Write a sequence for this structure.
């Protein structure tokens, strides 16, 4: 077992897969320029030293091209890992992701495959509205894409390796405050969890949630940074005699509803915490699904705790207000226990 | 490189162009009859571009197309029967009824399912070029798009990347002077789209897109350059639609004098005259060849009509890759 950050775990996953399969390559802006940062959050730092610039491809600032090049290369025998500096820039490449990557297999009657990975950092980090969004919900809405969001080093490595071997386009959302990026790319107020990663090879299948903390009174489903805040809230609530179960879905498409339903069969209460704005988010989909399929387990209305429906503001006091905090989660659980 | 061409190729190119012309005409009438679902964007008038560009490519070379893909696909070797079946939305269509007119293609012959978002195919062709280069093949990709697509951001990003990486991509801009109903003069300040190539540091060339031999000669140069690893070329093929932008388009926005002038430059008529005046084939032999093509199309129509519909619930399959089946 080695202890490492998420950025290191992702890098190790990429390195192992590139060693294993020469079709795998990385493409993105500033992903490994000599003297540069190794992508915005250091994930690809130093990979060119081993694999060379033919397989670690630094691009012009051309997001449409990056995504399109990944689609074209994936359709013709390669396995691209494309990289965008901030998730917000995915909007620049929406045609390529939503119309091309997601639909090519279907439009061809299932004859064409598009085995590509698109990595994107999300989360609010006092950079203002255009470098802050959590975009999982947009992409879960598009048939043909898979959407994953690893929140620990162990998951980051195991899920990214699975994504690279998947025969479909997979969007990987990573959180800026969880990477553990070092040096000049370190984030203020980062959580940077260090996790244990086995020395031997492992893969994590998509569609398997993890119960991060067991509890009996209320189930919280939360991903990425919000999962850590839910765990912190659970600690506080335990002292008040409220037992919280925290589930990390790990992948949003496919989504492991069985684990959630099994949990609410025990707790009878469900809260979903997400960093994305509330309206029509992935949390809304989970709430609707549970309402359709398993509402009879519930003793109270489903509660969603999410960012308020505003662009993410710059001022830390406002940003902290908009994004679900530990305090807000605690307060909402207390309310939920009363209803 | 010395460009040379033999009589057999001249005849075969005529046959392919004629196939596209008759295919498009037949589709038009079938559409008017109301037996075909969907909409159509037809390529008759532009046959020399498709055939001239693609004639010399092999199955391992790729082609990306647009919302107007029938000519490109026939020229690249997608079987006529599977295209016709797709037009009728049949289970044995080239896309199993899931693609339709605007997504026609067949990767087994290097025809990428057509990309019906204007300019959307350009970055994908760059990715294919990157893949061909990374895998150290000598193959190339021909990327078709229209005059309208040259105003898309994807054009700029794609051509720039292909140029800096010396990718084996031939950008074939079919300039038919109209983006839907908007004349190019209203949306592009310069005379020639080919001039934009200079901005990316690649060769650009204006070609008579209604002369299949001229197109083929320019294509041969660009393909050879790409195969040598010297990078992309932008060819601007000046051409003209015979039909409208899409179904039921009477082209009220086109000048009748302009139409007359271009219809006189009909690429099929010109190539036919070339064959006759150079005694490559006589009138009777040409007629026989044409009749055979027409019969093939009729057989394809009958076959498509008699083919099974897909099952409605097949709509739920192939969202993700299932192994190609």
């Amino acid at each position: 077992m080695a202890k490492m950050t998420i950025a290191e775990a992702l890098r190790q996953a990429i390195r192992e897969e590139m060693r294993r399969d020469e079709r795998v390559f990385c493409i993105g802006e500033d992903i490994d320029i000599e003297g540069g940062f190794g992508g915005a959050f250091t994930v690809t730092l130093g990979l060119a030293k081993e694999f060379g610039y033919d397989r670690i491809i630094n691009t012009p600032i051309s997001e449409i091209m990056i995504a399109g090049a990944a689609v074209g290369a994936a359709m013709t025998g390669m396995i691209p890992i494309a990289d965008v500096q901030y998730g917000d820039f995915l909007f620049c490449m929406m045609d390529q992701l939503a119309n091309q990557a997601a639909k090519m297999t279907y439009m061809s009657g299932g004859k064409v495959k598009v085995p590509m990975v698109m990595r994107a950092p999300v989360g609010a980090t006092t950079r203002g509205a255009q470098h802050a969004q959590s975009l999982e919900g947009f992409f879960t809405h598009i048939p043909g894409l898979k959407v994953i969001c690893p929140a620990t080093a162990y998951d980051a490595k195991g899920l990214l390796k699975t994504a690279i071997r998947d025969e479909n386009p997979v969007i990987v959302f990573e959180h800026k405050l969880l990477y553990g990026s070092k040096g000049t790319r370190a984030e203020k107020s980062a959580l940077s969890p260090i996790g244990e990663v086995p020395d031997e090879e492992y893969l994590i299948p998509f569609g398997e949630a993890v119960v991060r903390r067991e509890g009996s009174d209320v189930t919280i489903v939360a991903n990425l940074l919000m999962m850590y805040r839910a765990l912190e809230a659970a600690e506080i609530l335990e002292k008040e005699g409220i037992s919280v179960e925290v589930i990390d879905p790990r992948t949003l498409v496919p989504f492991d509803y069985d684990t959630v339903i099994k949990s609410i069969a025990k707790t009878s209460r469900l809260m979903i915490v997400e960093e994305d704005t509330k309206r029509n988010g992935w949390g809304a989909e989970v709430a609707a699904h549970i309402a359709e399929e398993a509402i009879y387990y519930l003793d109270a209305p489903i509660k969603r705790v999410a960012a308020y429906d505003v662009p993410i503001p710059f001022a830390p006091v406002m940003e902290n207000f908009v994004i679900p905090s530990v305090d807000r989660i605690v307060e909402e659980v207390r309310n939920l226990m009363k209803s | 490189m010395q460009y040379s061409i033999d009589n057999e190729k001249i005849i075969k190119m005529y046959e392919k162009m004629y196939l596209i012309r008759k295919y498009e005409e037949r589709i038009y009438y079938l559409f008017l009859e109301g037996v075909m679902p969907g909409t159509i964007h037809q390529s008759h008038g532009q046959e020399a571009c498709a055939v001239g560009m693609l004639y010399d490519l092999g199955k391992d070379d790729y082609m990306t197309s647009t919302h107007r893909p029938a000519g490109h696909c026939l020229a690249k070797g997608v079987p006529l029967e599977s295209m016709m079946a797709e037009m009728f939305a049949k289970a044995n269509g080239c896309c199993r009824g899931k693609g339709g007119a605007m997504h026609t293609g067949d990767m087994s012959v290097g025809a990428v399912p057509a990309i019906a978002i204007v300019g959307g195919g350009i970055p994908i062709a760059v990715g294919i070029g990157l893949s061909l280069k990374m895998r150290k093949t000598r193959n190339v990709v021909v990327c078709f798009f229209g005059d309208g697509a040259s105003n898309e951001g994807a054009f700029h990003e794609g051509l720039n990347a292909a140029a800096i990486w010396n990718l084996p991509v031939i950008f074939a801009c079919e300039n038919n002077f109209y983006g839907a109903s908007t004349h190019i003069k209203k949306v592009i300040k310069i005379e020639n789209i080919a001039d934009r190539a200079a901005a990316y540091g690649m060769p650009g060339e204006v070609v008579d897109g209604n002369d299949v031999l001229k197109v083929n000669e320019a294509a041969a140069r660009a393909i050879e350059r790409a195969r040598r690893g010297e990078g992309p070329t932008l060819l601007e093929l000046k051409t003209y639609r015979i039909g409208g932008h899409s179904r039921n388009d009477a082209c009220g926005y086109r000048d009748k004098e302009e139409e007359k002038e271009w219809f006189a430059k009909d690429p099929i008529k010109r190539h036919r005259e070339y064959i006759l005046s150079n005694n490559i084939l006589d009138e009777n032999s040409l007629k026989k060849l044409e009749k055979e093509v027409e019969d093939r199309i009729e057989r394809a129509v009958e076959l498509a009509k008699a083919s099974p519909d897909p099952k409605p619930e097949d709509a739920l399959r192939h969202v993700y890759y299932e192994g190609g089946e």
